[in-house]
Amino acid sequence: MERLLVLARHGQSEWNLKNLFTGWRDPGLTDRGVEEAVKAGRWLKSEGYGFDVAFTSNLGRAQRTCALMLEEMGLSNIEVLRSEALNERDYGDLSGLNKDDARAKWGADQVHTWRRSYDVAPPGGESLKDTAARVLPYYIETILPRVMSGQRVLVAAHGNSLRALVMVLDHLGPATIAGLEIATGVPLVYRLNDNTTVASKSVLERDIDVS
After folding, report:
1. pTM here?
2. Using N-to-C axis directions, what is the helix angle for 99-106 and 108-116, rounded to 10°?
């Protein structure tokens, strides 16, 4: 039984490019973001991967990334499930602000704490711990049973919703997760044991030639 789980952060968004806090706001992908999503699908196809079902968030940038990846793989007709549980972390009052402007207003240390700590939330927003509190139950109740039944599963989501999931899959503590960055459009490929633990993990690197 394959027990394949692939995680992919959406391609670069317009607000990633502008260095803005995005959260639950819904900017589209840049041209580069579209290219990243297409290449991610191309990488996976070139390595022989396929999927039976895909999961994504309620935000357009993740949904479009998912669609572009599947289209590139010739899998546009598979089941795609969308859930708010996989949305990006809500940045609250920081949403829409330039990160440099936020540092000027609140100080670099405070903004770094809001961005990278495990359990400190920005004003009106979510901490990574809060994000994990909605991502992990959805993973356990909805995504994991599909993987364990032998379905090949793609999850196209966001930097922080995926960080919350990777924290559990890779057994990372709050101090370690603070330094983890998930690159846009680079698939993380997991295979699970029959007890749901990770059997193997690989990262499909950007420099694979799939042109």
Report:
1. 0.93
2. 120
